[in-house]
Amino acid sequence: MKISRYFRDRYNQILAREPEMLTKARIRILAQAIIAFIFLFGFLFIYSLVAGWGILINTRLGIFLSIFIATLALFLFKQPWTRAGHVFLACFTILIWSGALLSRQGVTLVTIQYTLLIITGGYYILGARWGLIYSLANLIPVIALVITEHLFNYRFPSQQLTTKPYAFVFVLVFNFILLVFIHYNFFRAFKRTNRTERRLKADLQLALTAAQELAAAKTNFLSTMSHELRTPLNAVIGMSNILAMENKQPEQKENLDILRFSAENLMAIINDILDFNKIDAGQVQLEQNDFRLDDLLKNVYGAFRSKAIAKSLDFSYLPDPQLHGVTVSGDQSRLTQVLFNLVENALRYTPSGYIRLQTRVSLKTEEGIRVLFRVEDSGIGIPQDKQEHIFDPFVQVSAKTSRQYHGAGLGLTIVSRLVALHGGVLIFASEEGKGSTFSFGLSFPIVYPEPVPVSGVSGDDRGIDTLRVLIAEDNEVNVLVMKKILKNWNIQPDVAVNGQEAVDACRQKVYDVVLMDINMPVMDGFEAAKLIKESTPPGKVPVRIIAVTASVDAAAEQLGGYRYLDDYMLKPFRPESLKEKLLLAC
Q: Of 269, 374, 410, 419, which has the fewest CB atoms closer than 10 Å, so is most exposed?
């Protein structure tokens, strides 16, 4: 009992090493086939000794019995188990060859059975390649013997042994049973594997559905939190802007600048998290609008020049002269975001030295242009062991860097993914203590805008203070901020606290501009804008509706395509941005 338990434990250990069910079935087929042939040849060997079949048959049976026993030992005690499979099939091959060459009957039904067994075992136990090799190694000699015997009526001198009738019948029946058993065992395992795969597929589908629901819940949560965070931040940034406009005392300017900078820094972190969430969810689609590359680059340079001067950094802009006056089609805002992130990172991580914003035209034709963008700095650089993960989300050079320079660790992740959306690749080179260089190449179609005729009437002929403005906003603090901003331009607006009041107000009074919040009680901004536009009498100029929202999910992708809204702004906004949009209504 202890010996049988020991061998059974060894067998179970071999099975436990293989995770796949089909591989376990192959191991079982091999083990059971070896044991079956040990039993068959053991029985035949004993019977041949008793019946006196002769020394040649006894010797042959004894040799193959010994080989099969050795194969079982190899299977149990030497790894991998496929070695035992090769020995078993090679032994089988020799068995077929020797039987055909020694038997007077030549190729018999048992020989064909053995050949079928080795073909089946070769494929089921060792796979397609070795199955083909062992099949050909047995089929070719058998076919050659059949042709030699039946077409040329030639027999080899070695074919002297006579098959015993009882042994022949026993082996014939045994081989048929073994063939049936091998196929049954393998296809039972195959069926179990299919069943397991179907179960796993169903579990994976459930997990995928749950993950999608979780992702949707995360997106909704971030969208809601965006609105909730932006609303008070709008008040903080708005009031700091108003104080800066109203308060000219130099001693208060520094305090206001710090307040505004801190609020804008917090807003930048919120924007990074929300942008990453949208990109990660595949919700970002590039827009196509016409813009001048040289103007965009000048604006990026101008936006950070004062910060560079404040840190005593040498910030230089090196444009390619071929970009002058070139208008291209692409996503201006996303390209600006990429360059803003790269330059802002360079400013943040460069305590002294220089920053260079450089462009070079690598290819220019009548139809398109390819531009190489490069941002180089002499900052702290990136250690070699951190460079592999620099584009991973929430990764920073070190905890010390995170504390010293702040940030969410999402800037480069967003930049790399936005560049990839444009069809480019963000490349970087960095050395710790010496600085970093980030570069990427993008292709744009060139646009040739038609000249716009000069009008004799200027948009500034009508003063902004003559505009009739309605504020549709349910948050009292936001109303207060917008009223104070508009008061600086001598505009006295009316206020509606929900969408329905805004519709009623537009029916009772003519307005030039409606500053429309999107998330309001009773009626939201979308429905209110639709009703206001549709109620405009024929021949009258429709009121200009500007959406002002703190919800990022209702921003460019949704608002830009809504035909009842003329423009939009995302809270918090700069007073200069609002003034530019109001001037369009003059």
A: 269
Note whether 410 and 391 are within 8 A (CB): no
* pLDDT of 436: 93
- Residue 111 CA, distance from chain mean position: 56
| DSSP class of 552 | G
Distance between CA atoms of residues 298 and 317, nearest Å: 8
What's the token pair of residue 179? 């063939």
Rounded-to-10 torsion of CA 203, 204, 206, 210: 140
Report how far apart, in Å, the C-alpha atoms of 145 and of each of 92, 139, 140, 148, 188 are: 17, 10, 9, 5, 36
Spatial neighbors of 90 by CB under 8 A, at least 6 apart, are none
Rounded to whole angstroms, the Cα distance separating 67 from 73 reads: 10
Cis preceding-peptide flag for 80 (omega within 30 of 0): yes
**How crowded is the C-beta side of 315, counted as CA atoms within 13 Å?**
22
Give the per-residue pLDDT at 460: 45
- Report which of 405, 425, 301, 318 is spatially closest to residue 361, judged by C-alpha positions: 318
Read off the DSSP letter of residue 283: -
**Distance between CA 578 and CA 254 in Å, rounded?**
24
Token pair belonging to 124: 């089921």
Element housing 547 (H / E) = strand 544-549
Peptide bond into 572 cis (omega under 30): yes
Q: Other CB atoms closer than 10 Å to residue 398's CB: what's the count?
A: 11
114 close to 96: Cβ distance less than 8 angstroms: yes
Give the Cβ contact number of residue 160 at 10 Å. 11
- pLDDT confidence of residue 164: 63
Q: Mark out the alpha helices in 314-381 (DSSP H runs).
A: 332-348
Single-letter residue type at 263: A
pLDDT of residue 557: 47
Closest by Cα among 135, 227, 132, 171 to 37: 171
What is the phi-psi region of residue 41: left when phi exceeds 0, alpha when psi lies from -120 to 50, beta otherwise?
alpha
Of the candidates 255, 326, 247, the residue with the CA atom closest to the CA atom of residue 294 = 326
The CA distance from 536 to 267, in Å, is 38
Q: What is the rounded end-to-end Cα distance, in angstroms, of the chain?
A: 101
Distance of CA 252 to the CA centre of its chain: 49
> Do the Cβ atoms of 106 and 125 come closer than 8 Å?
no
Q: What is the mean pLDDT of each run of 10 residues along the chain (586 residues)?
A: 76 84 84 88 87 83 91 88 90 81 66 82 86 86 78 62 65 78 77 80 88 76 70 76 72 70 68 69 74 86 84 92 91 84 89 93 92 94 80 55 47 85 91 92 88 46 81 88 89 94 93 91 90 87 87 51 77 82 85
**SS3 assignment, position 492:** coil
d(CA 281, CA 553): 12
Q: How many residues does the chain have?
A: 586
